[in-house]
């Protein structure tokens, strides 16, 4: 069987049952973060990837959350259901649906309406109907944002749902995509991931990221099958190795740039590498510190600018380091460098983009409109690329 036909077998619709062969915490003791390095073994899959691609991972929900839902509706888990959005050829057990196929979070207005219709307790009815009043839209949004399905079922116990009624209100459990942190030129049979493990609390209940804790807590190294697929991306290092690269990736945003640098070093690329990395504290949150120090010592990363937000009174971020090095950054761009950003879309990427506009306007002697046009052209030429989430 050719590699192509094997690769064609394993897709989002038919993921490869990979094994995680390494699971280690990257932060040092004392960090307020939990960032892990995972190695996913692709042996036997025929899958290939390139720097800049993402790995799709299908997770399972926590068994205790599934048990709590079964208990809340008085079900055994052996009941057969056909969740409408899954379009299944034949029914599956409620336990399988809740464990592997459906999202247990993000309830919608629809479930509130159903509970209001089914509640028999007057106080519960009044509260549910109050939430559904037209003027209570914002209150309802906040109410739902802080709750998962289990919260609603325990808050309104008089509203009895059947197994089928419950699953018909739920969304599909979607795969999560993670930027790949390795180069196939160095690790052809492995994919490395840099993942922030999500744990928090809302509505007095402990919550977790489904996929991040599936990988960190609920898989056994070298044993548990983890269904994965490769998601191709247009994000990637320049094909021409003589081109300089400026890479801005704080926190887990460093993942693809670890892959880019591995790729370019393996190729013997002559273009320079400039990496901006930041996190909370240098002592505990310097992800892959030994690797970056080594690249700098060998002259393979020409510039490494670090920003630590909690090591001093004034918070310092990657965009502050960009501003401090404005003239050199402009010189690199003028000479044809590509500019890459990976990480948080809401704040960091927006702030980096604003500072980039500012630098181009000031250093390039342009007004705001001309700087905007310059950036539009960078994007058009694929010289400004973002992998944001």
Output the CATH homologous superfamily of the largest domain.
Answer: Nucleotide-binding domain of ferredoxin-NADP reductase (FNR) module
Helix fraction by DSSP (H/I, runs of at least 4): 25-40%
Proportion of β residues? 15-25%
How is the largest sheet built, in terms of strand order? 6-3-10-1-2-7
Specify the overall morphology. globular
Q: Name the poorly predicted regions.
A: 1-6
**Rg result:** 24 Å
**What's the average pLDDT?**
96
Largest sheet: 6 strands, antiparallel
In total, how many beta strands?
Answer: 15
State the domain count: 3
Span between N and C termini? Answer: 37 Å
Second CATH tier, the architecture of the largest domain: 3-Layer(aba) Sandwich
Question: Count of helices?
Answer: 16
Structural class: alpha/beta
Q: Any idea of the CATH class of the largest domain?
A: Alpha Beta
CATH topology of the largest domain: Rossmann fold
Question: What is the strand and helix layout of this fold?
Answer:
Layout: H1 3-9, E1 16-25, E2 35-41, E3 54-57, H2 63-73, E4 80-81, E5 92-93, H3 94-101, H4 109-118, H5 122-131, H6 137-145, H7 149-155, H8 163-168, E6 176-179, E7 190-196, E8 199-202, E9 205-208, H9 210-217, E10 225-231, E11 245-248, H10 255-267, E12 273-279, H11 282-285, H12 289-297, E13 303-308, H13 318-324, H14 326-334, E14 338-343, H15 348-363, H16 368-380, E15 384-388
Parallel strand pairs: 11-12, 11-14, 12-13, 14-15
Antiparallel strand pairs: 1-2, 1-10, 2-7, 3-6, 3-10, 4-5, 8-9
């Amino acid at each position: 069987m050719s590699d192509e036909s094997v690769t064609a077998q394993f897709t989002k619709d038919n993921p490869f049952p990979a094994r995680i062969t390494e699971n280690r915490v990257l932060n040092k003791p004392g960090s307020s973060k939990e960032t892990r390095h995972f190695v996913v073994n692709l042996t036997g899959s025929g899958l290939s990837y390139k720097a800049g691609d993402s790995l799709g991972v299908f997770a399972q929900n926590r068994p205790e959350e599934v048990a709590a839902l079964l208990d809340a509706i008085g079900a055994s888990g052996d009941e057969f259901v056909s969740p409408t959005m899954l379009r299944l050829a034949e029914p599956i057990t409620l336990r399988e649906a809740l464990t592997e196929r459906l999202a247990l979070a993000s309830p919608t207005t629809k479930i509130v309406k159903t509970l209001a219709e089914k509640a028999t307790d007057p106080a519960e009815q009044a509260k549910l109907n109050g939430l559904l009043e037209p003027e209570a839209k914002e209150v309802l949004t906040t109410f739902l944002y802080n709750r998962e399905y289990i919260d609603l079922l325990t808050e309104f116990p008089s509203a009895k749902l059947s197994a089928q009624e419950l699953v018909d209100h739920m969304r599909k459990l979607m795969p999560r995509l993670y930027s790949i942190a390795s180069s196939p030129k160095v690790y052809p049979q492995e994919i490395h991931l840099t993942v922030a493990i999500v744990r928090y609390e809302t509505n007095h209940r402990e919550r977790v990221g489904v996929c991040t804790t599936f990988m960190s807590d609920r898989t056994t190294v070298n044993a548990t099958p983890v269904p994965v697929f490769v998601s191709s991306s247009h994000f990637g290092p320049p094909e021409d190795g003589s081109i300089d690269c400026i890479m801005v990736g704080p926190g887990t945003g460093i993942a693809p740039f670890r892959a880019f640098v591995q790729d370019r070093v393996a190729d013997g690329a002559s273009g320079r590498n400039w990496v901006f990395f930041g996190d909370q504290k240098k002592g505990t949150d310097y992800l892959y510190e030994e690797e970056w120090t080594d690249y700098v010592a060998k002259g393979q990363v020409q510039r490494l600018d670090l920003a630590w937000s909690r090591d001093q009174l004034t918070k310092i971020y990657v965009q502050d380091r960009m501003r401090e090095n404005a003239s050199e950054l402009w010189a690199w761009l003028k000479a044809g460098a590509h500019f890459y950003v990976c990480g948080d879309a809401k704040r960091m990427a927006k702030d980096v983009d604003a500072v980039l506009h500012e630098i181009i306007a000031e250093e390039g002697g342009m007004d705001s409109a001309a700087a905007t046009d310059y950036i539009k052209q960078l994007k058009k030429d694929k010289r400004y690329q973002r992998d944001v989430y």
